[in-house]
Write a structure and sequence with these properties.
5-stranded mixed beta sheet; 12 helices; 14 strands; 43% helix
Length: 335
């Protein structure tokens, strides 16, 4: 260690969690630890154990306060760590020697992923010249879409960042949310997977979904797998899939379907959305109602009429059987 006091050794010490604690205790016992320097040690001891092994075994840490500078080194000391006094709390800064070390730190140290943080990550990769065209496309797309996410996802306290040449993934620390962005052969995709109904509901409330039987079935399957999803919402989706599947194609391709949820709604739209379909819960029961255009009203009535024709014919058969002998006399034979 190097310092402004003659009682502090001027030889760098081995960098390890144990040695940081020993140095902290020694300075306290010698009366050389003031509150500011103590806060720097606390910050170092809080952050350094979270570093990946490649950092812990090859770093040079400097704890700096006023005229005191304490140095700890492990391996070749290639990863530079500086802990110093800040305005509100001590600053903990790391300068990674390579893109590989930077990537390992992002994998192992989840962080709040604001648009600003994502931009800084992109710029760091650009500076190492490891950014592929596809990965740059992924960063552009996530910077475009991620700020639109609801607060419960956007402000997720800690998320990991993982990437390869064509894919970027943002994964929450507890695994309840994952943002996956890919770019391959010029095609971009942005997908969010969540495990809780609360997050799913907030995402659905913010945008309209494409309306089709397949998409309703997909949403129903996703909701069934969410933790905390209300049973009535699952029931409403069952009714929506069942009854909407029976509608004429001209309605399916030009409708706005709204499913009432707790504290919100899910909206699906096809075509111009001229036919209105509401699935709501009234007195504890799921209700399915439709307001259609004149043309679709006629087609729905005609469809119902066609569906009843076989039933009418079945009722007529016994009656016709009684009258057939009268209408068609039995043939008489002469010999």
């Amino acid at each position: 260690m190097v310092g402004g006091s003659s009682s502090i050794p001027n030889v760098p010490e081995q960098l390890s969690i144990g040695n940081l604690r020993k140095a902290q205790g020694r300075l306290e016992s010698q009366g050389l630890m003031n509150p500011e320097l103590g806060a720097c040690f606390e910050r170092a001891l809080a952050e350094f154990p979270q570093e990946p092994r490649c950092v812990q075994r090859n770093a040079r840490m400097v704890i700096r306060h006023e005229y005191t500078e304490l140095v700890f080194v492990s391996g070749q000391g290639e990863c530079e760590i500086t802990v110093s006094e800040g305005e509100r709390e001590p600053c903990y800064e790391v300068k990674e020697p390579t893109a590989t070390v930077y990537q390992e730190r992002l994998r192992s140290r989840p962080q709040r992923l604001s648009a600003g943080n994502l931009e800084r990550i992109r710029d760091r990769l650009e500076s190492w010249e490891v950014m592929t065209k596809e990965l740059r496309c992924c960063f552009d797309l996530v910077l475009e879409e991620f700020p639109k996410e609801p607060e419960c996802i956007r402000d997720n306290p800690r998320m990991c960042v993982v990437w390869d040449e064509t894919k970027l993934r943002l994964i929450s620390e507890d695994g309840d949310c994952e943002v996956s962005v890919t770019c391959c052969d010029g095609k971009r995709s942005y997908e969010v997977k969540v495990d809780s109904w609360e997050m799913y509901r907030e995402r659905m409330r913010r945008s309209e979904q494409p309306l089709s039987i397949e998409n309703l079935q997909r949403v129903r399957k996703e909701v069934r797998g969410l933790s905390g999803a209300p049973e009535k919402v699952k029931e409403a989706l069952n009714v929506a899939v069942r009854d909407f599947s029976a509608e004429p194609r001209c309605l399916q391709e030009n409708a706005r379907l709204v499913i009432e949820c707790d504290r919100g709604e899910m909206v699906f739209v096809s075509g111009k959305g001229e036919n209105k379909v509401d699935v709501c819960i009234i007195d504890g029961k799921v209700s399915y109602s439709v307001v259609t255009t004149t043309w679709v009203t006629f087609l729905r009535m005609f469809q119902k009429l066609l569906s009843k024709i076989p039933e009418v014919l079945l009722k007529l058969v016994p009656i016709l059987a009684q009258f057939l002998p009268v209408i068609i006399p039995s043939p008489t034979w002469s010999w």
